[in-house]
Design a protein that fits this description.
With 154 residues, the protein is α+β, with helices and mostly antiparallel strands. The chain is built from five helices and eight strands. The protein is 23% helix and 40% strand.
Length: 154
Amino acid sequence: EGVKASLSMQLPGMIKTDSDFAGTIFIGRDSKHDVTFERGNIIDGVFPDYSDEAKQNDIVISGITANALGLSPGDKVFVYFFIDNSLKTRKVSIAGIYESYLSEYDKVRIDGFFTESRRHRPIIRDASGTFGLRSGNDRSQGEGNRIRAKLLVG
């Protein structure tokens, strides 16, 4: 059996519409992450299949955030990340809305895709958020080191 590992990161940021904004924690995952729990909480739209490159700029927000900002699946918004004393911007589409019934969690969380692509490495390398490795077994240390090395090479 091969090692099953996935990488995730958390970055503080902001989601902005034309008339309002909200502080967020962006939860980015690679395409190997098990999203069974997240898919089970979708109340409108879909949880994107991040193995499809066309979906890698899609995000999922909570019902609380959607109601506060007047957003629905299909809407396009900007997300901003505060990295190394500068603001990084990314235009995304709302793919789905979730409800976990954990209100403090739902107030700030945005789910999205974490990519290993070269164009995102400067953001990843300079990020002040946290990174995590999730694995199904104890043999994941080597895989985790391989992923981290791949992401941090500029």
